[in-house]
Amino acid sequence: MFMCVVLCPQLQFASEQSDANWTSASAKDLVFLVQVSCQGKTWMVRRSYEEFQTLDANLHQYIHDRRYSHLLPLPALPEIGDKVEIVTSMLSEYLNRLSMIVDSKLNCGPVLTWMEIDSDGNQFLPKDEASLNVPAIAAAHVIKRYTAQASDEISIEVGDILSVIDMPPKEETTWWRGKHGFQVGFFPSECVELISQDQSQSLSLPSAKLASKKHSKLRSFLRMLKSRSRRQRDALKEPVFGCDLGEHLLSSGQDVPQVLKSCAEFIEKHGVVDGIYRHSGVSSNIQKLRQEFDSENVPDLTEDVYMQGIHCVGSLCKQYFRELPNPLLTYQLYDKFADCMGEMTEDERMVKVHDVIQQLPPPHYRTLEYLTRHLARLATKSDKTNMHISNLAIVWAPNLLRSKEAEAVGLSTADQLKEVRIQTAVVEFLLTNVDVLFSDSFTSVGRFGT
Hints:
Elements (H helix, E strand, L loop, with lengths): L9 E4 L17 E8 L2 E8 H14 L3 H4 L7 H4 L4 H17 L7 H6 L23 E5 L18 E6 L8 E6 L2 E6 L3 E3 L2 H6 L12 H22 L8 H8 L5 H13 L12 H12 L9 H4 L3 H12 L11 H6 L6 H12 L4 H18 L2 H4 L3 H12 L3 H6 L3 H20 L1 H4 L13
Antiparallel strand pairs: 1-2, 2-3, 4-5, 4-8, 5-6, 6-7
Helix pairs in contact: 7-8, 9-12, 9-15, 10-12, 12-17, 17-19
């Protein structure tokens, strides 16, 4: 996962910028020299107008809502036509406004790479810039998260689109080489699936720019972006409870749900009491809190009514996860999680569970890590709460892992008990091994990288 703290980078057109030779150029051919300043250091990056459009798309998909940023959408190239003189002033105003709003929430990999900023706020220097110009031989979408273990590897998230530039046969090596944004490096081939022409028409692609020689494909891609934009605007109107996790986090700009953060912080500070998360709270207080969060307000949980009825906060937190349209561990991965609880050694189980959680969509992965670390910390206070890891797993499991088929057709009593055992075993394993499972240095072969 790409997380960092950037100390408010500032962007502006470089003083060396010259438009003397632009009068005969089209907007598509223009290259702009942008000055980036961060942590007392300054450097230049060259960006085309299309790369500015990619920056704008990433900013408003992963970081800011346009209602907050007040950044005007950059018009398409056909709309600009021959009026190249307006491009300079328009982009200059764009950079000035962007410099005013960037802050420590600027944690999106493609945006930071656009500015050539690394995770420490310093200039990111590509080791092999020429690789960016190597034509792709295939496109692939990521089905399993991978964190780079060496300087020549790239980190990828589920749902990312990669351009594959080197694809040796699997009998020779399991490593492929590709491009993701401005990053070039190796990644395990098992983490991606190649995109055929038929698949490319139906995938919801992220805003990373993919080269295409066919105008028809480009028009299809732009239509998909517009459709997605409409869906995202609609998601802004949805209540917090019962909303898809990914859509909610995208519209709210949060890494994890505010409901979870508020409840977890409150419980760790004030809710270390007997039976926390096991006892139910007063339903009227739960409903009041729910309405507050659904109204996009963050309630004051230290009010007397909640301090005297602490269990309503725990009940609310479980209710949020219980009402997710797609459970936190997802319907799609239920069978894989269940398979992990079969007969095998603990080392084998560790590798298998780790492998499955890498296949979670990024919003689910981030939220699962936050929740399991919270519950693991709470388990260390079991002398006060009587809620050991096994107890927490029992009360939380049905809210996190469910089978869609079982919900559709119903189960016999025996099958229901079997499902409960599987759910509980999975959640207990996650809580017991949270530090190892969410370590970026834990590799797919079950060993810590060196």
